[in-house]
Amino acid sequence: MTVFEHPDFDQHETVAFHTNQQSGLKAIIAVHDTTLGPSLGGCRMFPYANEEQALTDVLRLSQGMTYKSALANIPLGGGKSVIIGNPQQDKTRELLLAMGEFIESQNGRYVGAEDSGTSVADIAIMAEKTKHLSGIHSDEEHGGDPSPSTAYGVFKGIEVAVDYRLGSDLKGVRVAIQGVGNVGYHLVKHLHQAGAEIVVADINQANLNRVVDEFGVTAVALEKILTADVDVLAPCAMGAAINKNTISNIKAGIIAGAANNQLDEEKTGWSLTELDILYAPDYVINAGGIIDCYYQTINQATSKLVNGHIDIIGENLKTIFQRSETSGRATSDVANEMALAVLKAATNEPNTESIDSVRGVI
Ligand code: NAD
Asked: How far apart are CA 119 and CA 61, in angstroms?
């Protein structure tokens, strides 16, 4: 396994590996870029088949966090951590405390939060060993779990994409959601209220039943969700849902969902443009959670500030769609270019005032 030569290395500032024999912890922290501020990103626990898979995941996710914060206009850098293990079987208090110590050893250059496989309660245990965490202030208006804010941002993004492509609001618009966990559940709620027609699929029967019972949405077979005859496809499960095997059968004209790393590789973004599918780049539309975490870290997580800031998602998407249409380039390429421009401008003229205000808190 190589690190510097890894195809997703992309000039990461730090990639730290850690094991702790007593607890069985095996984890990686990747800090991609701290130009805009300390890196913030979730701590994912997943039963990776091997270390190579875990490394690829953490590198791709932490780079995405850099771009996400840059375009969301928040003074944070990009980082991510992964614990190699099955959250259902291997998660113990000792393991979470050891992860807290590992995060502490990064001296604030990495700030953790919950992610797939970790919960607010898990982060609270890590907090016994480090203060470099977000998503635990459950006493605030927007506290703890950031997924409701992620879902709200995705919902606002879907509104913009539907208006751009179909010139309509969401009433009667057909949406397929793959994965109705933390984010997917709240997304169903918003879409249901807006009058959309919703179909869902999930490998977790309890999560599926919850949205079927509560909102009367239609459940379809797992293998039918990506190819459902709908206007909008919202991937809200794991990464790489849009790949060379699935892309040619997608009927939706819009792809707009919460999952990180939805495209298996860069050129899939170009294929979507060729197929005239309007793709809302994942790290642009799912930035609601990082925006929420940012306001939690500066102790200002009110609905007014968080939801007001989330409006930037729609504005970014409009710009990306317009630039893509004018230039014929993939929306994913346009988004990357915009994020890199923010980083370049910050490198030339660092915004030290706002960075220090975050550093003072976390
Ligand atoms: P979650 O684990 O709560 O929910 C994911 C759901 O997808 C689960 O119900 C799971 O059973 C289901 N699932 C997994 N594989 C599936 C498959 N092959 N087919 C159908 N369903 C499947 O996670 P979440 O917090 O809701 O996050 C969802 C996605 O959004 C993840 O990719 C995550 O990285 C991304 N994301 C989450 C946030 C956040 O605030 N939670 C922020 C940004 C991005």
From this structure: 18
The per-residue pLDDT for range 244-301, each reduced to its tens digit, is 999 999 999 999 999 999 999 999 999 999 999 999 999 999 999 999 999 988 888 8
- The Cα 283–Cα 150 span in angstroms is 11
Q: Which residues have C-beta atoms less than 6 Å from ligand 1?
A: 116, 146-147, 150, 178-184, 201-204, 207, 222, 236-238, 258-260, 286, 289
On the CB side of 189, how many CA atoms lie within 13 Å of its CA? Answer: 15
Catalytic residue among 26, 68, 80, 156: 80
Superfamily of chain region 147-288+316-338? NAD(P)-binding Rossmann-like Domain (3.40.50.720)
pTM: 0.93
Ligand 1 binding pocket mutation candidate from 61, 152, 183, 225 (most atoms within 8 A of CB): 183
Calculate how far, in angstroms, residue 179's C-alpha sits from the geometric centre of ligand 1. 6
Write the residue with the smallest CA distance to atom 2 of ligand 1.
Answer: 116
CA-proximal residue: ligand 1, atom 12 (nearest): 179
Domain 147-288+316-338 in the same topology as domain 3-67+77-126: yes
Selection from 132, 97, 117 nearest residue 43 by Cα: 117
